[in-house]
Amino acid sequence: MCAYGAKTGSAEVDGQATPNGWFTAYRGGVAAAGLVLQGGHGGDSAGPIVAAVLKAS
């Protein structure tokens, strides 16, 4: 089993100029997910937030 993994994404919303950005990841026995409204690409917006959570655990 891999000790870590992650997935990025974005979700287009009608009437919103920039998509929502999301990022989900796990490291060992800890998982975290983040969503930034109108954040664009999830790796750029939510990724650093999730990384900070996993590094702190």
Automatic annotation (TrEMBL):
<dbReference type="InterPro" id="IPR012338">
    <property type="entry name" value="Beta-lactam/transpept-like"/>
</dbReference>
<protein>
    <submittedName>
        <fullName>Penicillin-binding protein</fullName>
    </submittedName>
</protein>
